[in-house]
Amino acid sequence: MALSLVPCPLCFFLFVLLPFFTNAQTYSNISLGLSLTAQNDNSQWVSPSGDFAFGFQQIDNDGYLLAIWFNKVPDRTIVWSANRNNLVQSGSKVQLTTDGQLLLNDQSGTQIWNANSVAAGVSYAAMLDTGNFVLANEDSDILWESFDQPTDTILPTQTMDQGGELVARYSETNFSHGRFKFTLQSDGNLLLYTRRYPLDTSNVAYWSTITSIGSGYRVTFNQSGYVSLIARNGSLLNYVFSVAVSTQNFYQRATIDHDGVFRLYVYPKNVTSSGGKWPMAWTTSSFIPSNICIRIMGETGSGACGFNSYCRLGDDQRPKCHCPPGYTFSDPKDVSKGCRQNFVAQNCDTASQETDLFEFREMFNADWPLIDFESFKSVNEDWCRQACLSDCYCAVAIFRDGNCWKKQIPLANGRSDSSTGGKALIKIRKDNSTSVASSGSKKKDQSTLIITGSVFLGISIFLNGLLLVANLMFSHRSSQQKSKTVHPHSHQGNLAMNPRSFTYNELEVATRVFKEELGSGAFGTVYKGVLGSENTEFVAVKKLGKVVTVTEGEKEFESELSSIGRTNHKNLVKLLGFCNEKQNRLLVYEYMSNGCLANFLFGDSRLEWFRRTQIAFGVARGLSYLHEECSTQIIHCDVKPQNILLDETLTARISDFGLAKLLKTDQSRTFTAIRGTKGYVAPEWFKSMPITAKVDVYSFGILLLELICCRRNFEMDLKEENVMILADWAYDCYKEGKVHLLVEDDEEAMSDMKRVEKFVMVAIWCIQEDPSLRPAMKKVVLMLEGAVHVPIPPDPASFISIS
Question: Which of 71, 447, 539, 686 lies at a C-alpha separation of 20 to 30 Å from 262?
Answer without folding.
Answer: 71
